[in-house]
Amino acid sequence: MTTSCNALPDITRSDVGTILVSPWLVGTPQRQRDAVDATIEEWQNAPQPKAFLSLNCFVSGDGATVLNYAQWTDDDAHREFMRTYRPALVRGIDEVVPGIERPGLVRYRLHGSLAATERGRGEVVAVFTSDANGIEHARNLLDEARARIGAESDLPPGLHAVHFHISIDGARVLIYEEWSDEAAATNGTHHLEPPTADNLYRLHRSITHYRS
Known about the structure:
Alpha-Beta Plaits, 4 helices, 28% helix, 35% strand, globular
């Protein structure tokens, strides 16, 4: 079953084998919305293999970026899909929103999560990335971040969940935080640098496939 919705993705769903994160630089809020709408339309019209689980299109608060967060069961299936269908997908999107800058896709694995004991629905996602020098260094960076946040039973006010990611080559870490609103996110005391509009996101549209 496939659904189109605006609920935040289930980051910890058990059938996820790979996570694909791709930022697009679009420049304005209108181009953000147009790029996301075109992306969802192209994906809805394309064949969706069983390995595809979800595509989630976030827009940044500064109006400049679309962040695509996709979940698949494995990398090989995604690579084959992109080899076969990506040119047509990109062409359709670029006809609607020309000039999108795509810095590149990064493949991640989930490296643990924290969730509030009484978890509400997050409305805002703060995303932090940093470079790492191999898998071991990446794990150490995330362990340090986890220690700053504290225990699940005592998360900062407004923080519903935190999900820790490591790129498959160990060169990058990504921390994905679900917050009740922008004010709560910017008031979080565990951040080395507080989030700003360029790394605070709201989900604009998504496609989610549930395997039967």
